Amino acid sequence: MNLQEILAKYSKYLLLVPGLIISLFVVIIPLAILIPISFYKYRFPYLIPEFTLDNYIKYLLSERTGTILLNTFGLSTLTCLVCFAVGYPFAYTLAFKIKSPKVRTYITSLLMVPFLIDWSIRTVAWISILGERGLVNYFLITTGLSSTPQKLLFSPIALIIIWLQTYTLFMIFPIYLAMQRIYPDYIWSAQLLRAPPHRVHYEIIFKLSKPGIVTGFIFVFVSTLGDFVTPSLWAGGIQTLGLSIASYAGNYLWPQAAAMSSIMLIITLAALIILIKVGGIKKLVYER
């Protein structure tokens, strides 16, 4: 078999090569280094390649571990739910209520405009909104809902709001994509059979858009779980697993940081496997 025949036979796989190469260098090789280091001993300033489970045992038996894991996964899960509460109605309106493709294109383009602005600028802008002299406190005081300025910044509320602004788009687009693939005949048939509107929405639209919902949850969950910069700035001192890893790594305690990273990876993969099994994400790749 000559080169031309080989290229003709395997040409459809060539587009996978760049992604596989990137995954090799940014995922597989780092993990191949990270996991063995998590079992190493550390004596300043050297790593000692001797197998030990002390890094895992000490962290799992620590009194703060439960609180840190609860903060980490609780905040990420809550952000997913908030993004869903905002993103699902928006995706539904975009898919079913706006009939003009041109208008839908304009709206989706406007959704991406904030990503053209630097992350730090978008984040710092919340000071003028959530600060003690910001717009929210001005509204609360002028309407009589509060007599004193509320401390909204540097709190879990501020963190979730900033994450909402950052990651809602990652919830909207997968749901919108899933809704776009729903056959209109399903909805029309149910309406002709006089099914109640709430049954039509739940049994057809919601259930058939479930793969997009789960995909959006995965995007937001993974993005917030690995974010340690935003919690360090705006969470008001709440400790998360990402902050712990960054702290240990910053102090050159690589085995401990690697052990915590491995624990996060295992828990995250378990959660993602469950979501994928429940959501049926493979349906998203099917053509009509």
Give the SSE order as H and E letters: HHEEHHHHHHHHHHHHH
Number of strands: 2
The Rg value, from CA coordinates, equals 24 Å
Q: How confident overall, as mean pLDDT?
A: 85
What would you call the structural class?
mainly alpha
The number of distinct helices, counting runs of at least 4 residues, comes to 15
Poorly predicted ranges: none
Instruction: Please give the CATH class of the domain at 66-116 and 156-285.
Output: Mainly Alpha
**Quick one: overall form?**
globular
For the largest sheet, list the strands in their spatial order.
Answer: 1-2
Stated plainly, the CATH topology of the domain at 66-116 and 156-285 is called MetI-like fold
Helix coverage percent: over 70%
CATH architecture title of the domain at 66-116 and 156-285: Orthogonal Bundle
What fraction of the residues are assigned to beta strands by DSSP?
A: under 5%
How many strands, what sense, and barrel or not for the largest sheet? 2 strands, antiparallel
Task: Describe the overall structure.
This protein has 288 residues and is an all-alpha fold. The chain has a domain of 181 residues: MetI-like (MetI-like fold). Helices cover 70% and strands 2% of the residues. The protein has 15 helices and two strands. The protein has a two-stranded antiparallel sheet with strand order 1-2. A hairpin with a 2-residue loop joins strand 1 and strand 2. Helix 4 crosses helix 9 and helix 9 runs antiparallel to helix 12. The radius of gyration is 24 Å and the shape is globular. The model has no long low-confidence stretch (mean pLDDT 85).
